[in-house]
Amino acid sequence: MTISETQLITMLELQDGMNNKVNPAWVAANNNWHRAIQVEGVEAIEHHGWKWWKKQECDLAQLRMELVDIWHFILSASIQSKNGDVVQAMAEMQAELDLHHKSVQFDGQTCVLAQLSLLQKLDLLVGLAAAKRSSFALFESLLHDCDMEWNDLFKQYIGKNVLNVFRQDHGYKAGTYIKIWDGREDNEHLVEVLEIADLDSANVRDELYSSLKARYLLITP
Fold first, then answer.
1. CA distances from residue 83 to 8, 22, 25, 148, 174 in whole angstroms, order as listed
2. CA 51, CA 94: separation in Å to the nearest integer?
3. Which of 87, 90, 163, 186 makes the best surface tag, with the fewest CB within 10 Å?
4. What's the rounded Cα separation, in Å, for the pair 214 and 44?
5. pLDDT value at residue 197
6. What is the β-pairing status of strands 180-181 and 184-185?
7. Where do the domains of the chain lie?
8. How far is CA 61 from the centre of its chain?
9. Please, which residues bridge with residue 103 across strands?
């Protein structure tokens, strides 16, 4: 299953809105989104495990969360490359996805995705990010390796985007936001809210926001 244009434009618009909340002039600020992708990619490698001198187990749940975070930065980089035009960004992203590339060119080599392990693909993602590049084919392949479809990413992205906006609205940037709600991080509350929400609802964003706010008000003075 591939991503739909509706899902793609929805996520781009939400990401633009989130970035505007942090900095209304975010496009002109020319933030280094690929550095953010690079750092998140390294964190994903840590969750996968890479140390051959000790026993490690892949934390797939955390790895999936890192992919959702990486997607935030991929969306931002795409919008910025089109000077803030989300429609143009969507068209370019969709065009690349429609090509269904099976390989990625990097460092003078052809990297065939089907021949790479999950860890090697994460290495490639970090390398591309360091070179200020990204690949939607590579990202899609990473999703599949983590047992995720585009629809799973869409749902998780919507939830995390709403939480990020909620944090900003309640003092995250100023340092007054309370992240622990009744002994648990806000991310854990988000998971519970997502489980009971109608993610196909046209008003899903507002409904998720209201559910988070109701819980937050219980722990704030």
1. 18, 17, 11, 30, 28
2. 37
3. 87
4. 32
5. 85
6. antiparallel
7. 5-146, 151-217
8. 14
9. 112
How far apart CA 16 and CA 19 sit, in angstroms, is 5
Contact yes or no for 78/93 (Cβ under 8 A): yes
Taking only the tens place, the pLDDT of each residue in 191-208 is 888 888 887 777 888 899
* 203 in Cβ contact with 197 (< 8 Å): no
> What whole-number distance in Å separates Cα of residue 171 and Cα of residue 148?
32
Paired tokens of 115: 């021949």
The end-to-end CA distance of the chain, in Å, is 46
**Where would I find the H helices in the chain?**
5-22, 26-29, 33-48, 60-81, 86-99, 118-130, 136-145, 150-169, 186-196, 204-217
Residue 74's beta-bridge partner residues?
Answer: none
Q: Which two tokens stand for residue 89?
A: 């960004």
Residue pair 205/162 in contact (Cβ under 8 Å)? The answer is yes
5-146: CATH topology is all-alpha NTP pyrophosphatase fold (1.10.4010)
Helices within 100-176 (DSSP H only): 118-130, 136-145, 150-169
Structure token digits, residue 55: 């026993």
Q: What is the pLDDT of residue 124?
A: 98
What is the model's pTM? Answer: 0.85
